[in-house]
Design a protein that fits this description.
Helix 8 (209-240) crosses helix 10 (275-284), helix 8 runs parallel beside helix 11 and helix 11 (291-317) packs across helix 12. This protein folds into two domains: 3-214, NAD(P)-binding Rossmann-like Domain (Rossmann fold, 3-Layer(aba) Sandwich), CATH 3.40.50; 293-449, Rossmann fold. 39% of the residues lie in helices and 14% in strands. Mean pLDDT is 94; it is low at 442-452. The chain is of the alpha/beta class and 452 residues long. Strands 3-2-1-4-5-6-7-8 form an eight-stranded mixed sheet, sandwiched between helices. The longest helix is centred in the middle third of the chain and has 32 residues, at 209-240. The chain is elongated. Bound molecules: nicotinamide-adenine-dinucleotide (NAD).
């Protein structure tokens, strides 16, 4: 049967390579759409968990994994051998940076190398990993054409479809987030769109893989630059004695032409701090220097140091020093309601404070443990009134919604809030990143935050 026919009748076998935050939800959605799915991951631990019906991605419920595996329509392997029967292969492996801040594309090349070894004709390959424009042509199409002699758009099909998953987002997930897809030839786009239309609600075809690759980089560069703008504004407002959060909330009432972004202790995760660097790196090969991207990286990257300076000044105002201070951090995940600490600014702040001699503990309901750079295994402490009261300073690094900040504010002797989690809570012991509370908000001290 033709590939097109197999996709239409949902008899095609779909494979997903790399079952992490992106690949696992996609694989589950493919099974739910009626396809048989082969999941491949190099991690034996992850494959073992999935085979036992367990999920390790917070947004994917255990029941979904268990049902898909029990149905016999989701098979798992650490070997690429089963891919010889795949009709489509979606690649969702990591694309981090090297220590030198250059793109580390080695996971993609390793996956492509393995795929080429087992690839049969009439297969669709979709790269989902975020990467620089040109990757699909240079690392996938070129490799298959030169090693196997297959003709693009006839013997095999290559598309790029950026993953837009937003972990922890209660409204948007893989199925209802519109999916952009671009193929190397129009026929590639047609075949790729056909498959994804059966899996997600909305598919937006674009004219090439390069356009699709650039779409993702535009989206994330847009976020990085706008976050940098409000971060810089927050430093300015702090100096001017203006509450930047109030400014942003008021500006956000404009019904057109403005979209709110919020300051914070820095940017984290596998996307915003990394993806723009992929673009600026590639741009340099065209002798083009992306000043906005470099500036945004610089501003955002310095936020953890700014936060540490703020904490130091606060302790100083209480005749205390960072050295020897007992500091409790609330939240270490890179953003609210998730369990991911990759590139989390909270970890950098933790290390900076530790290097200055502070005793740092943390509470994060989603991150029970993490390993610090000294090789220590750290465990989340219990969040108790006593623990808060004993701290010289409590810092809100990540504003998980399950924490009662009114209660925290009632027990912490000194509170530094890098996320405006204490919005509407008053007290002279509460300090915000980027400025003071509004006069009406400030009111008078501890009694205002008494927990009832
Ligand atoms: N996490 C997000 O929110 C997000 C959002 C949009 C796009 N992305 C992009 O999607 C890609 C994947 O990100 P992620 O967050 O899912 O990463 P992840 O680390 O959670 O998952 C990647 C998986 O790939 C596996 N893997 C590594 N090398 C492999 C190989 N050669 N063969 C098979 N499996 C291999 C790893 O074991 C891991 O399970 C990245 O390019 C990222 O930038 C991520």
């Amino acid at each position: 049967m033709e590939l097109e026919e197999k996709i239409k009748t949902r008899t095609a076998v779909a494979a997903v390579v790399g079952l992490g935050y992106v690949g696992l939800p996609l694989a589950i959605e493919m099974v739910k759409s009626g396809y048989r799915v082969i999941g491949i991951d190099v991690s034996q631990a992850k494959i073992g968990k999935l085979m036992a019906g367990e999920s390790y991605v917070k947004d994917v419920p255990h029941e979904d994994v268990a049902q898909c595996v029990e149905s016999g329509r989701f098979t798992l392997s650490t070997s690429y051998a089963p891919l010889h029967e795949a009709d489509s292969i979606s690649i969702c492996v990591p694309t981090p940076l090297r220590k030198t801040k250059d793109p580390d594309i080695s996971y993609v090349t390793a996956a492509v190398d393995e795929v080429v070894n087992v690839l049969t004709k009439n297969t669709l390959i979709v790269l989902e990993s975020t990467t620089y424009p040109g990757t699909s042509e240079e690392l996938i199409e070129h490799e298959i054409r030169t090693r196997l002699g297959y003709r693009i758009g006839e013997d095999f099909f290559v598309c790029f479809s950026p993953e837009r998953v937003d972990p922890g987002n209660p409204s948007y997930h893989t199925k209802n987030t519109p999916k952009v897809i671009g193929g190397i030839t129009p026929r590639c786009t047609e075949i790729g769109s056909m498959l994804y239309r059966n899996i997600v609600d909305t598919v937006i075809p674009v004219s090439s893989t390069r356009v699709a690759e650039m779409v993702k980089l535009l989206e994330n560069t847009f976020r990085s630059v706008n976050i940098a703008l409000v971060n810089e504004l927050s430093l300015m407002c702090e100096r001017m004695g203006i509450n930047v959060w109030e400014v942003i909330d008021a500006a956000a009432t404009k019904p057109f032409g403005y979209m709110p972004f919020y300051p914070g202790p820095g940017i984290g995760g596998h996307c915003i701090p990394l993806d723009p660097v992929y673009l600026s790196w590639k741009a340099k090969t065209y002798d083009f220097y992306t000043r906005f991207i470099e500036l945004a990286s610089d501003v955002n990257g310095n936020m953890p140091r700014f936060v540490v300076q703020e904490i130091s000044d606060l302790l100083n105002s209480r005749k205390k020093s960072v050295n020897g201070a007992n500091i409790m951090m609330l939240g270490v995940a890179y953003k609210r309601d998730i369990d991911d600490v990759r590139e989390s600014p909270a970890l950098e702040i933790y290390h900076l404070l530790r290097d200055k001699g502070a005793e740092v503990t943390y509470y994060d309901p989603y991150v029970p443990r993490f390993a610090d750079k000294y090789g220590n295994d750290l465990h989340s402490v219990d969040l108790s009134a006593g623990a808060l009261a004993q701290a010289d300073l409590v810092m809100i690094a990540t504003d998980h919604r399950c924490i009662d900040y009114r209660w925290v504010a009632a027990h912490a002797p000194l509170l530094f809030d890098a996320r405006n989690a204490t919005k509407g809570i008053c007290g002279d012991h509460i300090y915000l990143l980027g400025g003071q509370r509004a006069a009406g908000d400030r009111m008078q001290g501890r009694a205002e935050v008494a927990y009832v």
